[in-house]
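Lab notebook, bench 4. We co-purified these components, and the gel suggests they stay together. Before we commit to crystallization screens, I want a quick structural picture of the whole thing.
Request: model the full complex, all chains together.
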Amino acid sequence: MTSAAPNSGSLVSPAALMRIRNLELRARVVVEGFWAGLHRSPFHGFSVEFTEYRQYTPGDDPRYVDWRVYGRSDRYYIKKFEDETNLRCLLLVDQSRSMSFGSQGYTKAQYAATLAATLARFLDQQGDAVGLLSFDQRVRDYLPARHRPGHLRQLMLALEKPAGGTATDLVQPLEHVSELVRKRGMMVLISDFLLPLDRVEQTLSRLLAIGHELTVFQVLDPREIDFKFDQASLFQDVETGQTLYVDPALARQEYLRRFEAHREAFAAVCRRLGARLRPVVTDQPLELVLFDFLRERSRPSARVRGGRT
Amino acid sequence: MSFLTPLFLLGGLAIAGPILFHLIRRATKDRTAFSSLLFLKPTPPRLNRRSRIENWLLLALRCLALGLLALGFARPFLPKAKAILPSSKQSQRIVLLLDGSASLQRPGATEAARSQTLAQVRQFSDAQELAVLTFDRSSRTLVSYADWKATPPSDRAALVEGRLNDWKPGWSGTQMATALMGAAETLMETGTGAEPQIRQLVLISDFQEGSHLESLQSYEWPKGVELVLNPVVVRPPGNAGLQLITEENSATPASNAVVRVRVSNTADHTRDQFEVGWLRPDGNGFQGAPTKAYVPAGQSRTLVLPLPEVPGVQRLQLTGDPALFDNTVYVAPVPVTRARVLYVGADDTATPRQPQFFLRRAFPEGTRPVIDWTARKPDELTPAEAAAANGLTVVTAPLPATTTRALRTGVDAGGTVLFLAGSPEAVASVGELVGTPTLASQKASAAGGALLGEIDFRHPLFAPFADPRFSDFTKIRLWKHQQVDFTSLTNARVLARLDSGDPGLVEIPLGRGRVIVMPWGWTPEDSQWVLSTKFVPFLYALLEYSGAVPTATVGSYQVGDDLPLPDLLGNNLRMQLPDGTEVALTPGATNFSGTSLPGSYRLLGSSSPVLWAVNLEPSESRTLPTAADDLERLGAPLARDIPATADTQARNEHLKAAEAEGQQKLWRWILGATFLILILESVAAGWSARKNQSKLQEATA
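Here is the predicted assembly.
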């Protein structure tokens, strides 16, 4: 299973990928590359709900009657079309200002948008309905999950909007989501989660309580993880504009300790809630992320529901 | 390297600025964007860790720029090579010019001048050429170049000392300018030996105010001559002096005669109370009570003193001033001069507005000279009287032929005739007098009156009017005049012409005398001449020109002046000097030039004794030592080793420095270099910033 991981030699580096200006094109490169690397994958079509036949009942559209089956069995069966799916995926993308940091030549927001676009395209190719909700401290764009021509393009446009807002607030947008989306579905939350965690757990648990399946991508920049700055300078919060004189040589240890503690705390929250946490570093190839995502998802056992019954 | 404004060098301390900035430079200017400050704690600034210089090149450039700027503002200059000190004594030519004027008679001054001269001689004892001159009104040589060369160097000081011991200052005034010019020429003489490299003129003087430096104003000093001033300081300073105010035109009787004297006091004098009185003939005490005079320092007072009725030269003495040399004034009795004037005219003195009336009033009683008048009507004048008229004769009417001929004799003997030829008859008379009976004339009258133009101011008659202030004759209108044709008289000289071109005043020499023809009348109906301001000065000039007034023995004399001798020379004439010695006069001499002492000079051996009083030159009393400054102002080539006060020395040093700095203008180069370094600094800073940026980019990529 693991041996089927895409050959890393064929992977597109994120830096190279980000040079493609068009987000849609970027998503296509990733998805097609993914497909190319996956041609021997045993997980082909794993997420496609099997098309089923249903006995015709008066009122059904006679167009969908499968006349072949009728020819063989003399019974009317309605054929479920492939594009009809019951997987409804909503991409929750954080577009707050903190996502506009990036040390790799592109920002976390760009990486997150590419990731969301990749997922959207992939799911769309599979025939799933994909929706988008982008937010900073409140909801910016909301596209309900659909699968229809043109929807993907709209979604891409919304993703291409630059990051804005002055703060990250998960609570308000997610509460909004729980009101908007009543149907059960899959939620993919993409954010850096660099925020106090006190109300995050509560909000996420509400989302899960509705029955949504929640996958969390925590997008982080390599510099945020290793804090490898060599010059003392005024560090400026990209969200608030607040500055702080920091000598990295002196502050690094403390930073790393507190940062790790935060990550641990967040991972613990996800574990408790049964949400899948995927930490993503922006120098990671997107194919790998997609691959890992699919692999995770193909193991229903991995869907930990925590202690909930 | 010296600096004009060295205080600006303190600006160089600003170099500490960039060093400090380089040391304490924190990355405060650098901002690093970061996603969240959630996990960061502020770092306390720790300067000591950063206290190292990161960019030596930039630091050096900035320090250099600041240093150069401070250097430029300090106005550096390269001091000129000091004036060549007289070390190479072999090629020196020195003239020591020693002031020997009367002001050196002050207590202590003579000794000081001697010792200073000797000190100079000892200093230059091995100089190639040296001369010692002394001067007052004129220069004399004490030690010549030849004397100097002929004496071995070891004996030179003794030689000069011997001559100096025989020398003492005289009583004359100071003609410093003349002496300096003469000495400078002596220095420039081309000798037989090698040309001297240094020509130095050492002036040893008290530099008194009355040194007569005026003529140096236009003097161009010869190149290479250096003037060293060596002031003789006289202690105590200050001097009060007594001077006679000459007033010789008064012929008041001796009983009422007064003498005016000026008591002057120099500005540096501490005394201001003096007494002035006539000395007794034996010199002990005053005749009568002296006059008190209060003269504050720097001022002068004039006193009027009655002349005592004692024959001989009188002495007026000032007391209260320790500098005695100018405290005595000699006053000689002024002899009365007489002039003979013969008037020939139809009018008499009682008739107003007639020529004689005006003529008499032009010479009032009591003035000098005293006029001996002879007035005659034309027909009353005897030929004998006419022939004896060798003084001034004024003729205002035509004369009979016999009288004319007799007058001609008088003129030939040296008489002067002023002929007023306002009528054709008078012109004819002139013609007879000068020997041209056919002298043509016609009456002329210009509308509005004729004016005198083209006046020969060089002629003695008009010389008093030569000054532009007095030369305006246009206010005098001549209503009637005779147009006389003098062309037949080849020796006639036209002294003034009328604006019409006619002769206005003509001089015709005859024998030893002359006839002056004035072709207009003197009555106010004829002309404005007698009423004009020119009339009286003209008559006095005429009187002097005619020789009717003896010029000798008139005036006041100063030491060094020539005394004019009167024409009464006999044999065995002697001049008795103030010190009692007698000097024999050469027969036929017109002047006596040995007045080296103030006092009375008496001519012995003549029929009547003649007395002269010779006094000090008044300017000798002005002893305030200001001439050194005047010399500098007049552009004398002063050597800078005058023993000046520290203050003036510092000022002079500063001036010299400013001059050198102004010529060199090194600050321009330094400023240019600063700009260059600033440009370099900009380039270096830009390069450094780019390097840092690319390093950062590499680090973040």
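DSSP finds 15 helices and 33 strands in chain B. Worth comparing against the SEC data before the next meeting. The interface with chain A takes residues 26-28, 30-43, 45-46, 50, 699-701 of chain B (CB under 8 Å).
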